[in-house]
Amino acid sequence: MKKLLLPILLALATVSTVPQEAHAQSSCPSTPPAPVVVTGNITANTTWTRNNIYLLSGNVAVQAGATLTIEPGTIIKGEKSSKGTLIVARGARLEANGTASQPIVFTSNEAPGARRRGDWGGIIILGRSQENIAGDPAIEGVTGYNYGPGVGNAPVLNDNSGTLRYVRIEFPGVLISTNNEINGLTLGGVGSGTTIEYVQVSYSGDDSFEWFGGTVNAKYLVAMNALDDDFDTDAGFAGNVQYGLVLRDPSSADASQSNAFESDNDAQGTNAQPLTAPVFSNVTVILPPPAAGQSLNSLYRHAMHLRRNTSTSVFNSVFSGFPIGLYLQASNSPAPFPTPNTETNLNSGALVLRNNVLAGSTTPLQVQAGSTLDLAAYFNEASRGNTIYANSSSLGLNASNFNNVDPANANATINNVAPDYTLPAASPLVAGASFTDAKLAGSFFTTGIYRGAFGPAGTANWAQGWTNFNPQITCYNIPGQVLAAKPASADQVQGLSVAPNPTAGEALLSFELKRADAATVRIVDAVGRTVATLEAGRLVAGPQQLALPASLKNGVYVATVTTSETSQTVRFVVAK
């Protein structure tokens, strides 16, 4: 075994060196080529090409009548100082049609290791479909842009705002003021003629996805490590969503309290029409338990918070690890509740919950104080096919993919390169789905027997290849270089662990290198700051050990080992 005792360079604010990337490129230039800086309004048809890197400076708005086309493999960065944001006004179109091998990437313009949630604004797409807000509602986060049909106009339910396909959105999300934020992807009044599929939002400073009204459908969504909510629905949204993966960081949550699903009819919980009534199916939500010796962030609340007269329906989905599984809040008002409300929507069948799984929640089901609803009787009624597990480990998932799902495995490796979220054969999720409910009728929903976003091992892993589960270290300084990893060689680093974990001082990072290669080790704290970097040089194949610095302060850390082929990560705790 080769034991590495090379000095580690502490980097409290900046990264001293840039590691080799976990994809085909062999190095990352420290200085990117001069970007094409984009400001103001786009009023004519425009194409952005993959041979350039684009920088959004301030609010960049595609105006009505214009189409912005983005080639596959294009990199667009949001300027941190101006909170660069892309707005697609109603009547305009965005054609961002990436491919699995050449996704389109919207990301921070900060260097690897220095990126943070909220580095830039995000993407806001607006349309002329339905909404239930009086007048001509303005979208949150920016001024001067409205959504919906407009006063006196009929909603265009099949309105087409373009295509968002194979797109990653990294480090967006800005809090402007209370209840006024820019999300990773904001959709306001977007119609069903719009295509939204294969979209990943990572490290949003607010919600990952938020729908304000609209009838747009979406498939294959990934929400990773948002600060606030993952799927937020409001203002009369009535689209369909199938296949969603939600991954959360147990140490980070929002001051407003964080939920996976949050849904309102409107801010006051009135009966404004049309009701918020989306249908979700096949969503997997994982809030992993905290690392050994740490506590879950106290601001985490509900896997599903259905409130304010919503009629959101959820089928065939899995929610794991939240303190409260489902909170059905009848009204903004105390009991006796005005009607209609969220509870009456459940009783009438406007809101349906079938074939879902709640796991690892201290309180699986909760109703509002003063409620007489027997939510347990509803949820556990046999014909509805719902299941409650006391422990997340009962789901039988792969702990290395899901970051410590089994609390007994306190040192599970986080696979950030090519995770495979398909189900082991023994998982109870491989069966139990149903598509017989009338809300799942029609051509949009793909039928199957498994619950959650992925089927059994050997079936298609729709999140493979185009996604990036470790965007903090990815080099975006080469035009067209957008893939995060080479999945074929993701086995190069194996058995990554830290011992002892937790540690009160010195600890060893151990792993096996299957093929000789140069390696970089980067240590990041709980808020994403790089605190230590080691360039280990070229290592021979075989077992390796690295002495971690004893100077690390108390807290949760993530160590990432990066080679030219792969990148693997392990979480550890310092408790002195």
UniProtKB/TrEMBL annotation:
Q: Which InterPro entries has this protein been placed in?
A: Secre_tail
Q: Which domain of life is it from?
A: Bacteria
Q: Which UniProt keywords apply?
A: Signal
Which segment of the chain is annotated as a signal peptide?
1-24
| Name of the featured protein | Por secretion system C-terminal sorting domain-containing protein
Could you tell me which species this protein originates from? Hymenobacter daecheongensis DSM 21074
Upper classification of the organism: Bacteria, Pseudomonadati, Bacteroidota, Cytophagia, Cytophagales
